[in-house]
Amino acid sequence: MVTNNLQEAAELKLQPRTEPKWQKVLNFKIGGVIPVGLYIPFMAVVYLLMNSGKLGSDMPGAVSVMVLYGFVLAEIGKRIPILKDIGGAAIMATFVPSYMVYAHLLPQSAIDSVTVFMDNTNFLYVYIAIVIAGSILGMNRELMIKAVVRLAVPLTIGSILGTGVGLLTGVALGIPAYDTLFYILVPIMAGGVGEGAIPLSIGYSQILGSTQGEQFAMIIPAVMLGSLCAIILSGLLKQLGDRKPELTGNGTLLKTGDSDVLGLAEDKNKKPLDLYQMAAGAILAIGFFMLGT
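RESULT FIELD:
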C-alpha cells in the first residue's frame, strides 16, 4: 500500500499543471511589460486621481497617464490587421490620445500633467537620443564594420537615385520640390514612426519655429503610405525570391566572409544583460544629446 501511495504521488507530480484561465488573464503583460493583475489596480488609482483633480504635474503623474493609455493602445495597435504591419502600436498610441484631447475626453488635470512634464523636461528628446544611440550600440561591432564598409557605396548610390526619382515624380505631379523632399522623401527614407517621423518632427519644429505636433501631422501621412507600399513590394519580392532563390543571394548578406560574423550577430540575444554597459550606453546617449544641443 505504501508503495502504491508513493507511486501515485510521483505520478501526480509528473502530471503537467494547467494554469487557470483567470490566472492566465491576470499574468498577460500589456505591452509586454505590465501584467493585467497590476495594470487594473494601477489604472483605477490613476483614474481616480485624474477625475478628482489631484494628479500632480510632475514626472510620476505624467508617466502614469502616459503608461495608462499608451501601453494599452499600443497593445491594441499590434493586433489590428494591416495596421500592425505599418507601425500600428505607435500610431494608436500617438493619434488616439491626440483625438481624446481634441474631443475633450480626457480630464484637464491629465492634459496639464503631461503637457507640463513634456515641455519642461525634454523627455521626448532624450528618448530619441537613447533610441538612436542604443540602436548603434546594439549592433555587432564586427558585422557593422564589415557590412557597412561593403554596403556603403551601393546604399549611397541607391539613396541618391531614389531621391532623384522621387523629386522628379513630385515635381511632375505639381508638388513643390521643397515639400517633396522634406515632407515626403526624407520622412519615408528616415525609417518608420518612432525612429523617423518623431525625430524629424522635433528637428523641423525647432528649425521652423512651429510645434512638434504640427510638423508630425504633416510628416506622418507620407510615412504611413510609404510603409504600406514597402510592405506590399516586399511581399511581391518575397514571392519572386521563393520562385527564383538565385536572385536572393541564398540568405547571404555579403558575397564573401560574412557567415561567421552573422553567426555572432544572431547569438546576441543569448548574451545576459549587463547593467554596467546599459548605464554606460545611457550616459553616452545623453552625452550625444547634449552635444547636439
